[in-house]
Amino acid sequence: MELPVKFCEEMKRILGDEYEDYLASLTEERKLGLRVNTAKISTEEFEKIAPFPIRKIPFIENGYYYDRDVQPAKHPYYFAGLYYLQDPSAMTPASRLPVREGEVVLDLCAAPGGKATELAAKLHGTGLLIANDISSKRAKALLKNIELFGVENSFIVTEYPKKLQEYFTGFFDKILIDAPCSGEGMFRKEPSMVKAWEQNGPEFYARLQEEILEQALPMLKPGGMLLYSTCTFSPLEDEGSVEKALNMNPNLELIEMEGYEGFSEGHPEWIGSDREELRKCIRIFPHRLDGEGHFLALFHKKETADERVLRYQETRGGLKGEEKRLFEAFAQNIDRVFEPERLESKNKMVYYMPVELPEMRGLRFLRSGLFMGEIKKNRFEPSQSLAMALSAKDYKNCLKLSSEGERVTRYLKGETIMLTESEAGSPDGWQLVCVDGYPLGWGKKNGAVLKNKYHSGWRLQ
């Protein structure tokens, strides 16, 4: 890999004697990681059923390394939403933002969903997660991962931060900004980033980051926290952008994050600053631990009395008439409570809306709440996202498949499933198809045959 001369000169300046170690790390194979979805399974349980060798990532509570010769994205547990494949260092931002149940959280640059899904797992179905990405194409990948993880309290938006600021002044308890950056920490993982760096380097992204921070900071409520991160080493984009943010609002302060022996601190001297609190930032270099590169800064907005705090909560009337009857007929087999007033129908599509829902009119969005299914002629047809939001104990009629059996592979490929004699004795109709007790999707039983209703766009190739 040929690195830009300007980049190498800057890395020599900031790393000094460690520069050669950094260069050597780029020739090594990068470490691969997965993050367990703790909204579906505990790390202890996952360790018991892990289908391939895993090793704990010491600085991520629910993170694990896996070997290069396995294919975790083809295993049924991946399709059950039990884990997300992610670079170990990229797991740190969501892990260091202390999200609590019931909070209102924004992931401002969320696609493809690695950080948003972890924030959602911390909320455990409570509060509200707004996950935004300005690219509608990238936001579609974000939506798939949100659905795969069984998230039901999300709002997937595709807006510029300036537009969001108009709606959400003082609204969020927590904000995560994994900012667009020059990507220096991704050179080993994505060599194409080198060419992109030459086209748009740190100066370009530092201006963009300043603009994003200016628009995001007003959305943080007094007492709230904002985690800013990049996957670059550039002091201009890291400590430089953090110092600019601190200068924007006198009520902002940096706070400490959980450390690790392989982390480095922030370096104010690299940007010619005497602001010592910049040392509370975290820097991750690939020659110091098994991961790529990342930078983190955690801001706290002090309590003040002169800032507006807006909260929107719309009351909903629930389903009516025939739609209500058809949904309730299906829901007789569901053993969990969906609050009737939170159900909403839009063009025959039924959604379960979060309790704390913002004013949406005028915003471009892909999804609000949990898509439950569709009202069709004389029936309610449940969605793939509803299947992923349930657990096996939530639905009365389940087809239990083994991760080691051939039928689960056939199901994930969209094929019809033949049932055993005992399975054929269960009631006809909708079946929640599970692998080792974890839902994968729906099937429609008729005698000894299960018609496959697995989402066509999610099928195993």
Main attributes of the structure:
461 residues, alpha+beta, ten-stranded mixed sheet, five-stranded mixed sheet, 15 helices, 23 strands, 27% helix
Strand segment tally = 23
Report strand %: 15-25%
What is the gyration radius calculated from CA atoms?
Answer: 24 Å
Alpha-beta classification: alpha+beta
Individual helix count: 15
Q: What is the overall shape? A: globular
Helical content stands at 25-40%
| Cα-to-Cα separation, first versus last residue | 32 Å
Q: Taking all residues together, what is the mean pLDDT?
A: 95
| Biggest beta-sheet profile | 10 strands, mixed
Low-confidence stretches: none
Characterization of the model:
This protein is an alpha+beta fold. Helix content is 27%, strand content 24%. The chain is built from 15 helices and 23 strands. Strands 5, 6, 7, 8, 9, 10, 11, 12, 13 and 16 form a 10-stranded mixed beta sheet that branches. A 5-stranded mixed beta sheet has the order 19-21-22-23-20. The model has no long low-confidence stretch (mean pLDDT 95).
